[in-house]
């Protein structure tokens, strides 16, 4: 802690330390955006492949803010519903929790369609909060969701859908026509 405050209060000569840090942190993200834009222009195909993921600052990092939010909401389960929005929502039951998630998702898509970027960011945060509340209510942990996302990495959605259709046609024989 003391070490950090020293770093902030005494930046190195020339550029302030914080500004240098921020630029360095943003660089891979800007590079990623350029790479994705170029790929989209030249191939018109989206590929979340290793080449693009390698440009991320930390390809193994997960959404730690969501992990912290999950821990907070879990801890709020037993809190006073007068003091905690999460406690109030969870006390109203699964149907209400799910309904709130749905409402927030709809608000989010309305902003997306309207092209309101700032409102979309705000509504996205609402959606994620209500998704986390839904996970807590259902007893699903973020790790389980991260694992499922990791399992899907590198598997094209088109290929996966085709494989699913194939598996369905093998396991579910066509219904006999009347
Ligand atoms: N991220 C959020 C968050 N996002 C949105 N909201 C709340 O979600 C509510 C949504 O408002 P609505 O009017 O749509 O919902 P509502 O009041 O239930 O209305 P009804 O549909 O019931 O009529 C607002 O009160 C927002 O403040 C959030 N409440 C809490 N968090 C996080 O959860 C943590 C714990 O919060 P508490 O549980 O309140 O302590 C906080 O520290 C935050 O990190």
From TrEMBL:
<dbReference type="GO" id="GO:0005737">
    <property type="term" value="C:cytoplasm"/>
</dbReference>
<dbReference type="GO" id="GO:0005524">
    <property type="term" value="F:ATP binding"/>
</dbReference>
<dbReference type="InterPro" id="IPR008179">
    <property type="entry name" value="HisE"/>
</dbReference>
<keyword id="KW-0028">Amino-acid biosynthesis</keyword>
<keyword id="KW-0547">Nucleotide-binding</keyword>
<keyword id="KW-0368">Histidine biosynthesis</keyword>
<feature type="region of interest" description="Disordered">
    <location>
        <begin position="1"/>
        <end position="30"/>
    </location>
</feature>
<keyword id="KW-0378">Hydrolase</keyword>
<comment type="similarity">
    <text>Belongs to the PRA-PH family.</text>
</comment>
<dbReference type="GO" id="GO:0000105">
    <property type="term" value="P:L-histidine biosynthetic process"/>
</dbReference>
<dbReference type="Pfam" id="PF01503">
    <property type="entry name" value="PRA-PH"/>
</dbReference>
<keyword id="KW-0963">Cytoplasm</keyword>
<dbReference type="InterPro" id="IPR021130">
    <property type="entry name" value="PRib-ATP_PPHydrolase-like"/>
</dbReference>
<dbReference type="GO" id="GO:0004636">
    <property type="term" value="F:phosphoribosyl-ATP diphosphatase activity"/>
</dbReference>
<protein>
    <recommendedName>
        <fullName>Phosphoribosyl-ATP pyrophosphatase</fullName>
        <ecNumber>3.6.1.31</ecNumber>
    </recommendedName>
</protein>
<comment type="pathway">
    <text>Amino-acid biosynthesis; L-histidine biosynthesis; L-histidine from 5-phospho-alpha-D-ribose 1-diphosphate: step 2/9.</text>
</comment>
<keyword id="KW-0067">ATP-binding</keyword>
